Amino acid sequence: MKRLAVLAVALVVAFVVAPGLLASDAATADLRSEGHLVGAFRSGFVTYWGSGERNFDQGLQRVVDYWFRYHVAKGVLAGALLVVLVALAVLIWRAFLRTDGLRAAGLAVSGVLSTALAVVSLAAVMANVHGMAAPFGSLLPMLFGAPAGPLDGTLVQIRQQLADGQQSPPLEVITDDYVLFHAVMAVEGAIVVAALAVLAVLLWRRFARADGRTRRVLAGYGVLVPLLSLALAVVVAANAMTAAHPRPGLEGFFAGGW
User: What Rg do the C-alpha atoms of the chain give, in angstroms?
Assistant: First the structure.
């Protein structure tokens, strides 16, 4: 149990500090700085929009490729952390069932904490999966909050095209990635909802056969898991609707950011 706890801490640290290092090479080392990443994307986006072409130029492609690798690194680390936290939570609750007194109270707190962190890790895995699928789309929120400059004019043109129902080649790419981003979010969310529903059924079946402290632990998870499933189902529905009808969402996005 202690080794898993140490490994979990190490993975949390790695999740925070390692993705930039893992995603960068000699050509993209500067993008590890958030300021350089945002600046490079904004500059590349203005140039891309002005080109009127579908294909990214070398400067923007460099940023998009780095951002894809960044999400891959974060997704792998978040997935590893999720596995470790689930295993740790299982061991903690098993120990809790065999223990009394103050140690039992400490184990209960640890079990709740590991469960909460596992939920956060699951959310991180999902966020990075759709970030991998649509790295360009996941970069778009970086367009907002920039000081006055050429980007302002570009955003005005995008808003105007959206309002007029136009579809230039760059806007087609933006729309395609926006749809892909939300579609992947809906699909992966639906998969997790189904898995949580199965888990809830299994928990309540075990609850019916359990007694004492085991029954209380199973009841707690038996309530938590369906609540998570319902909350995620709302997110799935919202993203599915956005993917099916992207224009209103895009208009709102470019009117005020993500």
Answer: 22
* pLDDT at residue 197 in the model: 94
257 dihedral zone (left: phi>0; alpha: psi -120 to 50; beta): left
Q: How many CA atoms lie within 13 A of 173 on its CB side?
A: 15
Contacts of 160 by beta carbon, 8 Å cutoff, 6+ apart: 166
Give the pTM.
0.90
Measured between alpha carbons, how far is residue 185 from residues 111, 114, 223 in Å? Answer: 29, 25, 24
Could you give the CA distance from residue 40 to residue 157 in angstroms, rounded to a whole number? 20
Q: CA-to-CA distance for 70 and 76, rounded, in angstroms?
A: 10
Q: Distance between terminal CA atoms of the chain?
A: 40
Residue environment code for 147-160, b if the CB has 16+ CB neighbours within 10 A, otherwise e: eeeebeebbebbee
Task: Decide if pLDDT at 223 tops 70.
Answer: yes
User: Which residue intervals of the chain are DSSP H helices?
Assistant: 2-17, 19-23, 34-51, 58-97, 101-133, 135-139, 150-164, 169-209, 212-244, 246-256
Which residue did the predictor score with more confidence, 102 or 34? 34
Residues 17-32 have a mean pLDDT of 93
Secondary structure of residue 166 in the 3-state scheme: coil
